[in-house]
Amino acid sequence: MKLLSFHYHLKFTMDAPVSAHHFTLRCIPVSDARQRIVQLRHFVFPKDSLSRGRDQWGNALLYGCCHGRHTCFEANVCGQAAVGLSDGTSAKPFEQERIFGFATPLTEPDDALRAFAEKLRIRSGAPEEAEAVMRAVHDAISYQSGATTVQTTAAEAFAMGRGVCQDYAHIMLAALRASGVPCRYVAGMLLGEGKSHAWVEVLHDGRWTAYDPTNCLVVSDEHIKLSHGRDARDCAINRGVFRGGAWQETDISVIVTEDEGSEEKQPW
Amino acid sequence: MVNLDKLLGSTDAINGLLARYGVKFGIYKNGEFKEQLFPYDPIPRIIEKEEFAYLERGLKQRVTALNLFLKDVYNKKQIIADGVVPADFVYAASGYLAPCEGIVPPKEVYSHVSGIDLVLGKDGVWYILEDNLRVPSGASYPTIARDLERRCSPRTFHETPIEDNRNYPQLLKHVCDYVNTGGISVVLTPGRYNAAYFEHSYLAERMGVPLVSSSDLEVEGDYLYFTGYAGRKERVGAVYRRISDEYMDPLTFNPESLIGIPHIFDVYRKGNIALLNTPGNGIADDKGIYYFVPKMIKYYLDEEPILCNAPTYLPFYEEDRKYVLDRFDTLVIKDVAEAGGYGVVFGSKLSAEQKEQLVGMILAEPRRFIAQEVIDFCDIPILEGDGQVERKADLRAFVLSGEETVVWKSGLTRFSRNPDSFIVNSSQGGGFKDTWVLSQ
């Protein structure tokens, strides 16, 4: 168990003013069996309205609108989380999780990826199997930022042999799903400084267990989960529409530090 | 015997009035939008009281089961767990919308307006051709036609016991009121370039509710609001929306949609608005799922289906696949991804090369196709020039589900102008008739 402080910062800069800006943000961590959100604050600017909601997978949403003209939009989410409270989370009845066993456009395997999955002889998604898949995916491609985009599919990244955390996760999902094992994409934050991170949860025996193929690491107490879904598209940190023609520059920074002290008193 | 002389003599007058009222149907052909009159034929389709009572029972049963299926498939998924409907057919279907997972709509009604297409076979049996549970259109045409018929030939309606069908907008309004979560009800149209714009405006007027486009609606916080011409802002509790699911909310569905309302889906998920029909209904009227509807009736209601499907085969199952390949020339093959009479192919009408190509596609993607026996359905008379000719026709029955499930005592009868065509879909340029249900 570790106590982590986190600060998620998202900033858009537009090169021309936009208006009627509607946004949905998916960067609010939720407490579960593995992580407890001890404290949480958020700050969104500019905005005229802000509401909280949930999506179909239970992820927390912040949504709202900014009517007036603006060239900059910022969201900050910070707080404290106790993580590694358990080695997994319990799943719903199998039939209700089975959808995560079906490929999505981003995780549709091609022949090469299918052959890769076959060689791994995945049967059930049991921990030792899932770890073997994670290691194989970790070795199959090398980390290189900028080699892929958010639209890159698992098959494309696999063929290229390069990618970032999203691609590692997608390849692992594609391989497991090719064998019918339900698994889901997780967006979150990792101890240290950087951008947002992504990893994978695998369903086995009524439990979701998390694996980080980018770092070849079974997730325990250094990851804070923000959302899960079928693939990166379900976990989009930000979705928005606005009026106006502008180029938009996105700046994301994430800082997660370990707290030596005790939990802050006021639970959120 | 019904005396139709006066009515037949009024054909031109009625079509003229329909044109003047703008009773048109728009079709897209070769990427171009063309609006054309929806030709009215004055010879009604007449359904006897007893026969309609039978249809009524069957339709209520079917729609009840479909509503239960929708609740189940987006929540517990018991029917999949019990092996009645394969998971592949649900999750691979284009009509399945993951964002609808876990939602139970106001009053648990999913398909508020169901348009069920039937044909009467020459064997005297009614067959269900397809279910339309998304935004079925067409009820306004027989409604306005009836109004004009009664004006042209009042005597006919005095002498013949015909169920009045002009209550359709009221039935629909009752459903809106029942599921309304607080506030006004509105009819949402994508605009005047939609194929059924006449219907949108007609229904809104007759229901006595505002006809709105998406720019008149806005989400603020947890609720949806309508701002009228005078600038007055009112909360909206029910939206009879005539825009398709994918375009409803650019933040949940198609991000390119300009006709959607940002965040309407968030408000809906919170239970603060009713959407008619419920998004995600496409999973229940999918051509592949159609095969399973009789099984659903047994599964959910423990009843035998009153109305039957056209005999259907799924190449997905090996046994059916063999049958389909053996009997290819006698079957009609449908691509489950297509709608509106497109993607329907008669095995007998293909060249050897086309056939080979289609068989290849079926073997490669069996889940994508269904095959059905060609039903030889009844011809009904239509006027052509001074005489009468026989043409293929179907019937779209409308079932409204609110506090209770009712079948509208009429229906849209569509016929094909082309003597060789079995396809009567209005997107393909047919005509329509009023449907008279006798009350005695």
Textual characterization of the structure:
The complex is a heterodimer of chains A (268) and B (440). Chain A is of the alpha+beta class and 268 residues long. Chain A has two domains: 2-84 and 237-258, Immunoglobulin-like; 89-234, C8orf32 fold. In chain A, 18% of the residues lie in helices and 46% in strands. In chain A, helix 4 (154-160) crosses helix 5. The longest helix of chain A has 14 residues, at 127-140. Chain A is globular and about 55 Å long. Chain B is 31% helix and 26% strand. Chain B folds into two domains: 5-289 and 399-437, no CATH class; 311-373, Dna Ligase, domain 1, CATH 3.30.1490.270. Chain B has helices at 5-9, 11-21, 49-73, 78-81, 87-91, 140-152, 154-159, 168-179, 197-207, 245-248, 264-269, 287-290, 293-301, 318-326, 352-364; strands at 24-29, 32-37, 40-47, 113-120, 126-132, 184-188, 211-212, 217-220, 223-227, 233-241, 274-276, 308-309, 312-313, 331-335, 344-346, 369-373, 379-384, 387-401, 405-407, 412-415, 431-437. Chain B starts with a helix and ends with a strand. The model of chain B has no long low-confidence stretch (mean pLDDT 92). In chain B, helix 2 (11-21) packs across helix 6 (140-152), helix 3 (49-73) packs across helix 13 (293-301) and helix 8 (168-179) crosses helix 9. The radius of gyration of chain B is 22 Å and the shape is globular. Classes of the chains: A alpha+beta (268), B alpha+beta (440). The A-B interface holds A 22-24, 49, 51, 53-57, 61, 63, 65, 93-96, 98-99, 102, 230, 234, 239-241 and B 76-78, 80-81, 87, 91-92, 98-103, 219-222, 250-251, 255, 262-263, 266, 269-270.
Question: Can you give me a brief rundown of this structure?
Answer:
The complex is a heterodimer of chains A (268) and B (440). Chain A is α+β, with helices and mostly antiparallel strands and 268 residues long.
